[in-house]
Design goal:
The chain is of the alpha+beta class and about 240 residues long. About 40% of the residues lie in helices and about 20% in strands. A hairpin with a 2-residue loop joins strand 6 (about 115-120) and strand 7.
Length: about 240
């Protein structure tokens, strides 16, 4: 039986679990001067002095103390976004498999808030909003392509062909989900490259859809490790 094709223009990010706090940074940094006595410190509210230590570590790019916090995210995003995300080999991934399950008919289509037109040449370009006609043809053609592709996928499966072969009919805007685990240092590296920010020392030009992932990561990071996040921003969004 044919399933209804669903079109979305959002990306889901959820913090599933983790062990992350500003005090993790302080705790791991102090071992260099206090050795085993570091274990004697009791967890409590972060002091101004400790926030200053975090800023010092960030400014001087002493990165390893930031590796002792971790985040595990659940992310549901189009496959073309995963191709960019997985270039960050400082994270661990486990993704749903089109070899072992029938993929859901859910496809990404950009909405009217997504800029469509590239102006300029490679390495020096900007994106602008499209005309009503450009948005219309993008939606119509993607709707048609995805419906035809998923119908072909179902026909191949119905003929008894293996899922790993049938999935070849599907376009890269189909959604896929994965667990992503990374430490705070890796997360800052991701944010430095995948967010457009005026206060960034080194400008970045990410594709909008992976920036949508980064925006949600950043919100979680800001709430979970506020002093570390503040130091990251203050020092130009350069990963230590």
């Amino acid at each position: 039986m044919s399933r209804n094709v669903i079109f979305r223009s959002t990306i889901d990010v959820e913090l599933v679990k983790g062990s992350a706090s500003d005090l993790d940074v302080v705790f791991s940094a102090r071992v260099s001067t206090e050795g085993e006595r570091t274990r004697d410190h009791e967890a409590g509210e972060l002091t101004d002095k400790e926030a200053g230590l975090i800023n010092f570590l960030m400014r001087e790019r002493h990165g390893t103390p930031f590796e002792h916090s971790y985040f595990t995210f659940y992310v549901n995003a189009p496959i073309f976004v995963w191709r960019e995300h997985m270039r960050h080999r400082i994270a661990s991934y486990n993704e749903e498999s089109g070899r072992y399950r029938v993929l859901d008919p859910v496809f990404y289509v950009p909405d009217e808030n997504r800029k469509l037109v590239q102006t300029g040449k490679t390495g020096a370009y900007t994106f602008e909003f499209g005309t009503d006609e450009q948005y219309a043809i993008t939606r119509v053609q993607l709707y048609h392509t995805c419906q035809v592709a998923y119908s072909a996928y179902e026909e191949i499966l119905a003929a008894g062909v293996a899922r790993e072969v049938a999935r070849m009919a599907l376009p890269v805007n189909i959604y896929s989900s994965a667990y992503v685990t990374m430490n705070a240092r890796a997360l800052m590296n991701f944010l430095s490259l995948r967010l457009i920010a005026e206060d960034s020392q080194y400008p970045s030009y990410p594709q909008r859809e992976i920036e949508m992932v980064a925006e949600k990561y950043e919100d979680i990071f800001r709430k979970t490790m506020p002093a570390t996040y503040a130091a990251f921003v203050k020092n130009g969004r350069v990963a230590p």
